[in-house]
Amino acid sequence: MPVFLEAGKEVNGHTVEKSLGGGGEGHAYLARTKEGTRVVLKQLAISATSRDDKAERERFHRLKRLFGLKHECVAKTIETFKHDGALYLVSEYVDGRPLRAFLESGTKFSVMEAGRIAHNTLDGLAWLHAQEVIHRDIKPENLIVKRGSKGNLKTKIIDLGAALHMGLSRVTVRGVVGTPAYMAPELWSGPSGAISSTVDQFAVGVVTYEILTGRHPFAADTSTGFFVKVLSGEYPPLGTTVRGAPAELEAWIARLLSPNPSDRYPSADDALRALEIALRG
Predict the structure, then answer these.
(1) d(CA 251, CA 52)
(2) What is the phi/psi pair of residue 10, to 5°?
(3) Cβ-contact 44, 87 below 8 angstroms
(4) Half-sphere exposure of 248 (CA within 13 A, CB side)
(5) For 250-271, how does the pLDDT look when each residue is reduced to its tens digit (9 = 90+)?
(6) Is position 270 annotated as part of the catalytic site?
(7) What SS3 string covers 151-187?
(8) HSE toward the beta carbon, residue 28, CA cutoff 13 A
(9) Which of 6, 42, 74, 226 makes an SS bond possible with 89, Cβ 3.0 to 4.6 Å?
(10) 172: how many CB neighbours lie within 10 A of its CB?
(11) E strands present in the chain
(12) Smallest Cα–Cα separation from 72: which of 169, 182, 148, 173?
């Protein structure tokens, strides 16, 4: 089983500098290569040998199709490897702050800034989907935001630890994967459910609403209340809390947050084009 890595530990030519935190999909570390390049080393919660994790290993190995490919809105996937019974994913270290840090510090984003973050995210997702990869864990923690030299916001998607190749969308993989607060309802059924790339659109809808309002669209006092709200698609209208929000943007978010996958946009690229129109009001 994977074990916590202390600073200074060397793993397959990567020297661990510090922990970046972890969750159900594994633990991430800031590390340096032999050449001195900073990278993110993610130790996945998948056994490299257990029969129980066979489908998960297949999911993991299919990420190799991203090696050598680049997109300005997605952290580059560098390599995968096995070490001491654990599987590792190495990706580009992205300079900036997680969107979650901005939200927790009370940063107020304008409608256009929120739109810019959503635009970059969908741009990256459209590219991933073109490579037949579904991210499955879009959330503020996995979006790194940085202001450019001219003050414009740039956002990059990180952490493909939960990513799923579309060819495996009906394969039995381990349990429910993702972060519940940002998961489309069809993901709750776990391995038996059919998964499409529109699950990533749903998460973008939740994140965009949260950026604009400072609250989760389906916030509830209990988990049961939360699930009922998600399944009903009911949440406080954007216009009640965000002044100057275009009605078209309200409709765009509503479509992304639909509990029915077929009611969302046919593709991330379609959602991206619709966002551009909505922001023009």
Answers:
(1) 43
(2) -105, 130
(3) yes
(4) 12
(5) 999 999 999 999 999 999 999 9
(6) no
(7) CCEEEEECCCCCCEEHHHCCCCCCCCCCCHHHCCHHH
(8) 21
(9) 42
(10) 12
(11) 10-11, 14-23, 26-32, 38-47, 77-83, 86-92, 97-98, 133-134, 143-147, 153-157, 164-165
(12) 148
The residues, any chain, with a CB within 8 Å of residue 259's CB and separated by 6 or more, are 184, 185, 230, 231, 232, 233
Q: Over the stretch 165-174, which tens digit does the pLDDT of each residue have?
A: 776 554 444 4
What is the tens place of the pLDDT at every residue in 5-39? Answer: 999 999 999 999 999 988 777 899 999 999 999 99
Kind of pairing between the strands at 164-165 and 133-134:
antiparallel
161 band by pLDDT with thresholds 50, 70 and 90: confident
> pLDDT at position 55, please?
61
Q: Which residue, chain included where needed, has tokens 């965009």?
A: 208
- Cross-strand bridge partners of residue 82: 87
Residue from 137, 159, 263, 270 carrying the catalytic annotation? 137
How many CB atoms sit inside 10 A of residue 78's CB? Answer: 17
Residue 171: both structure tokens together: 């394969």
Q: In what order do the strands lie in the sheet with 14-23?
A: 10-11, 14-23, 26-32, 38-47, 86-92, 77-83
Residue type, 97: R
Region of poorest pLDDT, from 92-96, 148-152, 159-163, 173-177: 173-177
Cβ-based neighbours of 78, under 8 Å, separated by 6 or more:
39, 67, 90, 91, 92
Task: Say what the pTM is.
Answer: 0.90
Angle subtended at Cα 61 by Cα 165 and Cα 123, rounded to the nearest 5 degrees: 40
Structure tokens at 278: 């909505």
